[in-house]
Write a structure and sequence with these properties.
- 36% of the residues lie in helices and 23% in strands.
- By secondary structure, it is α+β, with helices and mostly antiparallel strands.
- The chain has a domain at 4-243: ATPase, nucleotide binding domain (Nucleotidyltransferase, domain 5).
- The strands form 7 sheets. A 7-stranded mixed sheet has the order 17-18-16-15-21-22-23. Strands 3-2-1-5-14-13 form a 6-stranded mixed sheet, sandwiched between helices. A two-stranded antiparallel ribbon has the order 4-7.
- The model has no long low-confidence stretch (mean pLDDT 93).
């Protein structure tokens, strides 16, 4: 009997696969990093073939480590880096260009031109998004305009577009299924989140042929069968959600007002707003949290482009730390009399500022500043930016009541960072027992469709907390530190 689930978690810097049992306990995992390409300043690309190879390899590794045969897998769930764009040939399955990653800023001018033409209000009203290079639509238009022959082939129906989930589904099913889910569709600048359909007017404005687009399905749905040649047996694909939405599901944030924040390369906070798509007055995103049984649940989202990537920069760029794991201890040992602010706008600033042209800066350096203070500044920057998001969400949601933040992602392993986060938010921070909530969300969706797992309200009772971090910082210190952060951002943007 097939009693296990396989979650594919295709991220920005690595691909992972985790085998879960029917109680959603991880049994084995595989992970593989892949190359990041930076052809020009502000450009970020991935090789889709390298992504595909890493996904297949990690799936096999996870099955091997779990000591589970492919025939024991009831269903596959997929979660993915969201706005990253792939275009491929429908006949050959070969990409026409490297994937353009969500971090890529090459379409800044195209976005500015659309804004100058007065189109942003329309895009925001239909999609809940802003006209920013972050999202897929302008990246897709760039590929059509800059890859030789691409537009002609697209208009002839010879090409297919997708975010990474769609590309993987196509490959896994041997080209039989061209589909995405509502959460990934909602990140493209092409999808009307109110009607639940691709928007013809937006497609016209970006000059994108409809024939390129995948079918949009529920998060728990039939996405075809994984070809038996890949893992040794045919396995149904039953769940798909973008990584942040999958984490929202994995954190069991099913009730309006519940909030989660994921700390990886970037940081992404989502607040469940229920059946209502809440328009933001504070430059947050209105997006689809999940769609089940044809019913959409919405969220407000704040995106921080650089979180863990700031620590990677200290390690790989400046080479002032040897391991990301060292940052908590370094921060703890930092000179308390120094207040250094790192504004990590390496690829612009995300919510609530949305300035694509901003670049990073460090304020408050002294002759006595060492790697300890820099490590502390990198971790504190994540906490300050999360507070920016929380305050914006509370304004839009109309609530200033108590908030408990559920956290996940690599950075949450640092007790120092999580305590500082609770201090800066003046709110409890809950870290779950299972930190792989993104993969957990994908596995749950697959298990839900396969009939192995209960509906959301019952699944929510299984969520369990590892540790709660309660605020300890005095309000005067908190206010002073946050005021210094706001001043640093103001200086950067002035």
């Amino acid at each position: 009997m097939s009693t296990h689930l396989l979650a594919i978690d295709q991220g920005t810097t690595s691909s992972r696969a985790i085998v879960f049992d029917r109680n959603l306990k991880p049994k084995g995992s595989g992970q593989q990093e892949f190359k990041q390409y930076f052809p020009k300043a502000g450009w970020v690309e991935h090789d889709p073939e390298e992504i595909w190879a890493s996904v297949v390899a990690t799936c096999k590794s996870a099955l091997r480590k779990a000591k589970v045969k492919a025939s024991a897998i009831a269903a596959i769930g997929i979660t993915n880096q969201r706005e990253t764009v792939v275009v491929w040939n429908r006949k050959t399955g070969k990409p026409i260009h490297k994937a353009i990653v969500w971090q890529d800023r090459r379409t800044s001018e195209a976005c500015k031109a659309l804004k100058d033409q007065g189109h942003e209000k329309l895009f925001t009203a239909r999609t809940g998004l802003l006209l920013d290079p972050y999202f897929s639509g302008t990246k897709l238009a760039w590929l059509l305009d800059n890859v030789k022959g691409a537009r002609t082939k697209a208009e002839a129906g010879e090409l297919a577009f997708g975010t990474i989930d769609t590309f993987l589904i196509w490959r896994l099913t041997g080209g039989k299924v061209h589909a995405t889910d509502a959460t990934n569709a909602s990140r493209t600048l092409l999808y009307n989140i109110h009607s639940g359909a691709w928007d013809d007017e937006l497609l016209r404005l970006l000059d994108i042929p409809r024939s390129l687009l995948p079918e949009v399905k529920d998060c728990a749905a039939d996405y075809g069968m994984c070809d038996a040649k890949i893992l040794g047996t045919a396995i149904p694909i039953g769940g798909v959600a973008g990584d942040q939405q999958a984490a929202t599901i994995g954190q069991a944030c099913f009730e309006p007002g519940m909030m989660k924040s994921t700390y990886g390369t970037g940081c992404f906070a989502l607040l469940n707003t229920g059946e209502k798509a809440v328009p933001s007055q504070n430059r947050l995103l209105t997006t689809v949290a999940y769609q089940l049984n044809g019913k959409r649940t919405y969220a407000l989202e704040g995106a921080i482009f650089i979180a863990g990537a700031a620590v990677q920069w200290l390690r790989d760029g400046l080479k002032v730390i040897s391991s990301a794991k060292d940052t908590g201890a370094l921060a703890k040992a930092a000179d308390a009399t120094q207040q250094v602010y790192l504004v990590p706008a390496f690829v612009g600033l995300g919510a609530p500022y949305w300035n694509a042209e901003a670049r990073g800066a460090i304020f408050g350096l002294t002759r006595g500043t060492t790697n300890r203070e820099l490590a502390k500044a990198a971790l504190e920057a994540v906490c300050y930016q999360t507070r920016d998001l929380l305050e914006a969400m509370q304004k839009d949601w109309g609530s200033t009541g108590s908030t408990v933040l559920r956290v996940d992602g690599g950075m949450t392993a640092s007790d120092w960072t999580m305590q500082n986060l609770a201090d800066m938010l003046d709110a409890p921070v809950d870290r779950p027992k299972v930190l792989e909530t993104t993969a957990l969300g994908a596995a749950y969706l697959a298990g839900l469709h396969a009939g192995l797992l209960p509906p959301p309200e019952q699944f929510a009772t299984r969520w369990s907390r590892d540790k709660r971090f309660s605020p300890k910082m005095k309000s005067a210190e908190r206010d002073a530190k946050y005021a210094g952060w706001k001043d640093a951002v103001r200086k950067l943007l002035s």
